[in-house]
Each structure stands twice: as structure tokens, then as C-alpha cells.
Amino acid sequence: MPANxxxxxxxxxxxxxxxxxxxxxxxxxxxxxxxxAGAHAAPxxxxxxxxxxxxxxxxxxxxxxxTGVTTYSVKAGDYLAKIAEEQDVTGGWKKIYQDNxxxxxxxxxxxxxGLKLALGQKAATSTTKSSGSSSSSSSSSSSKDTSAEQSAxxxxxxxxxxxxxxxxxxxxxxxxxxxxxSSGYHTGVDFVVPTGTTIKAxxxxxxVSAAYDGAYGNEVVxxxxxxxxxxxxxMSQLSxxxxxxxxxxxxxxxxxxxxxVTGPHLHFEIRTTPYYGSDVDPVAYLRSHGVTVG
Length: 294
Known about the structure:
Blueprint: H1 57-67, E1 69-73, H2 80-86, H3 92-99, H4 101-104, E2 116-120, H5 132-154, E3 169-170, E4 189-192, E5 198-200, E6 205-212, E7 218-224, E8 229-235, E9 237-238, E10 245-246, E11 251-254, E12 266-271, E13 279-280, H6 282-288
Antiparallel strand pairs: 1-2, 3-4, 4-12, 5-11, 6-7, 6-10, 7-8, 8-12, 9-11, 12-13
Helix pairs in contact: 2-3
């Protein structure tokens, strides 16, 4: 079946009540005990003090963290991207999904309260003073790699605008005629992406709504500085809430197939108001802001 999505006009043009995703609780970090294996009873004759001297406590803690793995219990309102951010997981939600794919299943969006997830912790920057220089260099290199990856992933431009998804092709274009749409034509463009793809704000702005909206499924609408609105529909999960300020390229949710669709994709619109029926050509809008649209 083609991945191009279809949807009907929502029954109401009123702005949907926002849903603030709330998640509480966090997993306790279980550090392995530094055993007493190195401790011995004092001999009858005094030994040099340095013979029983142990590593400083701070260095022991760092060493423990470098190998620590904690179990996190999913709470109501949780989603992988949120857990990754709150638990400071290196590699983000993709790392959590990779490590727990057997438990989660084929859809990273379908997690439920009570599900146990194994979360690996960040490696320590150093374990001894003598290795500090090498570790610092490694950390710096890692930071540069991460920054480069994030820069490439946003597909941003100097104009402050970016594509809502990276490397996706357009399925159904703007103003394509069809009886399946209540307006008689397609009011946006459909980016062909699988469920779980990161959806990003095209520019800085304020979230007007983030909620389930009938045929559009899970939907986010953002107002930008030029007075125009961007709309993102059919998402499997939302990462923002109404009233929140977002930046260009910031994750606002994950793609999916909620609402009236025939398959997973991102339905994307540019509007002059927050409401259905005020659409303008989204491809022309992005190109006018220096964004290359394939």
C-alpha cells in the first residue's frame, strides 16, 4: 500500500485543547558496591601506611559509573525521547530502543507503564589522574562528533529554517486534487517516513497546540516570528506542549500513522492562521527561507 497519507477535514476548526505530557519518577541508579576484597586484617607488626591506602572515594565513584546500568520502569506519559533526555542517555532514544528492542517490540512508540528498560550510563571521563589527559582528549573528540552529527541532522540553513524531517522524500504534494479530502485538494505535503522518525520544528516559535485532533491524529501547530503557522500531523508521539517555546530543528515528536491515514508519514502544512483552510504552499514557503526541498 503506498505510504501517502489521506485524511478528512476535522469536524471543528477550533483549536484542540493542549495535552501536556507529564512524566514523573526516575530510576534509581544502582551502583555496584566497592567490595571489601582489598581490605585485610592488620598484621601483628605495623605495616607502612601506604600499603593499605585505597583509591580516593571520588575516583571509585567515577569508576563505578563507567560500567553502571540501571533499570527504568516506564511511567504513564513516558516516551523514549523523553526518557533519554531525563535520564541523560548517550545515544538518545535510538540507543534505548536498540538495547531494549526485544522488550519493546517492532514499534518504538508503543511502550506501556510498567515496562522495564535497561539504560546504560555514560562512561566516566577519567578513572585515575594519570589517564586524565587522554580521557579529556577523548571527551573533546566525542563532543565534536556529536555536534557535527546534530548539525547535519537538522538540515538547517543560515536563515534559521530547516526541514521538518531529514532525508525524506515528498509523497503527496500540495494542492493535489482528490475526493478523499473535504476541501477537494491536499492542504499540505506528505513526507514519506517510517514510524518513529524524529519530527523537528522548521523554525523558532511558540507551540499553539499539541494534541490529538481527529483526522490529523497527534498534531502540533507552531506560530513563527513572521506570523505564519507550521502544522505537523499523524505523529505517534508528541514531545512538546502548548505554550512551549521551541528552536529551529528542535524535536517536537515522532512520526506515525495516527488519525485518518493509509500508512505512516508526516503531513506538513504552512498556514496563515492556526486553523484548517488557511493553508499556503509549504514547499514554496520553505524555499523562500533558503531550505532545499527534494
